[in-house]
Write the structure tokens for this entry.
Amino acid sequence: MQDFTSPQNEETVGLKTEELTINMGPQHPSTHGVLRLQIHSDGEVIRAAYPDIGYLHRCFEKHSESREYVQVIPFTDRMDYIAAMSQELGYVLAVEKLLGFEAPERAQGIRVIVCELQRIASHLLAVATYGLDMGGFAPFINAFRDREHVLRLFEEICGARLLYNYIRPGGVSRDLSPGVLDKIKDFVKYLKPCLDEFNELLTYNSIFVSRTTNVGIVTGEAAISYGFSGPNLRGSGIDVDIRRDAPYSGYDKYEFDVCVGLAERGTVGDCWNRYFVRVKEMYQSLRIISQAVEALPAGDAMGKVAKSPKPVGEIYMETECPRGNLGYHIVADGSKKPWRVKAKSPCFIATSSLDEMCRGMMIADVVSYLGSIDIVLGEVDR
Amino acid sequence: MSESKGQIATRTYHSNPVAPVPQVLGSAVPKSIDDVAAALRQKIGADSVVLVEKEHVGTPYVVVSPSHIVEILKFLRDDERFYCSNLNVVSAVDYPPRAEGTESLLKASNVIEVVYVVQSYVHRHHVMVKVRLDRSAPKVASVTGLFRAANWYERECFDMLGVHFEGHPNHKRILLPPDWVGHPLRKDYEFPEEYNGMKVPL
């Protein structure tokens, strides 16, 4: 029998590994959507990774040029379909600012409540699928069970489970139905122990920790240069949050902490720290919700705004969405339709970091990195 | 981001491990878009600033000459009064030529505007800088050397509006297929009837 293991064997002395091109996606289960990654690998080590996006491109920016301002809101829902409420809020706030209008206090309170519920639902999905990518099935089931409660609350508040069209220029489309505040209070009480249980199941699980710590480290400087925002930026140790630094919709009235990566495990900026920022943020969202529910004033949920508003001006405005800072650049020319709506998507720019960050990684770690930056392809492609 | 006319939103400082805090600066931190324009005129040259727009509702901005854009963004990024280390967005807007005798509330005509928004995490302000380009052959230098974020933003601008960014390392379409014809966000874009032999439903 031929001996392949011996170094003296002439055939194995000159054995080189050839660079291999692998297509990951567009239907790969752990790409969280239709992202195609062209990976050039040398054995298990990645030499280059080229993301190929655009599979979900609908060009909502072109659509919105032929729609009225209010009719653009459903398009914004469909960008990041996991966190539709937050996407609506950013657009509506920008339009309201152009109109020089501020929503009634009650509407602002309701907006904060629904957006923080949305943040919890979004983060639950993000950490659950991340756990699933890393091989943990039980936390996934638990988190989806908890997310279902949020979706049921939304169904009661506005009639839809995923794409809401709820926040409108002027306020919200309908006031909270009677009894829903009590249900929200019950949910806050219910979720806290569930999150603690989730931490025990996944966060400090040694397999999960060893797969995610010290993998895909993004330094603070690189994160800023790439324009990261939200949990991705805070995971790299940068203490920035629009809700605190430039509060909108009455966020300055509530007490909460901005969570940054503190390297409880691993290094600041690695996958585990980005993941854990999301977990910590859910606790803070619960804090905000319980304060907002207590402080919710009586009054109108909808102010007086024209049915088809005609603003004039130009604005760039960002809000803190679950996946980062979503910005809208709107040029208004005084007609019923916007001249230009541009959405700055945090996921788009997080995806652009894939090439540099994945070089030198193992193939299995790409899945780890991809899950930790939490992209939604609907928002990348818009 | 509460902005009255001409004011840049500023907030108090929060700890940022990346950039050192210029404590001594105090009042030198720019308060309005006029201060930004004055600093640019002084540092880059009097011809670098074309006009300052602050009377409209929304975000005030400064229009600069396209030949100085790299220098200007580098200055805004590195100068301790600005520290705009984060490129928020590169957007672009098409303004077709206005017909004779028609009124419009738009601020420009027959240009393509490229809009850069840079933000400082140290001073908590953001600055909107614009360049106005010729519609027939829009061309501006790429700022990929300054911000890594610029890479994909500029590719998207090229894809959607056909703006050429000179010196871009990978100047290709990004959202549309590579063989797509035209740039959809141009106002005179004609919807294609078919793509690769497939009928496009409208």
Remarks:
- The CA atoms of residues 76 and 161 of chain A lie 16 Å apart.
- The first strand of chain A starts at residue 19 and ends at 24.
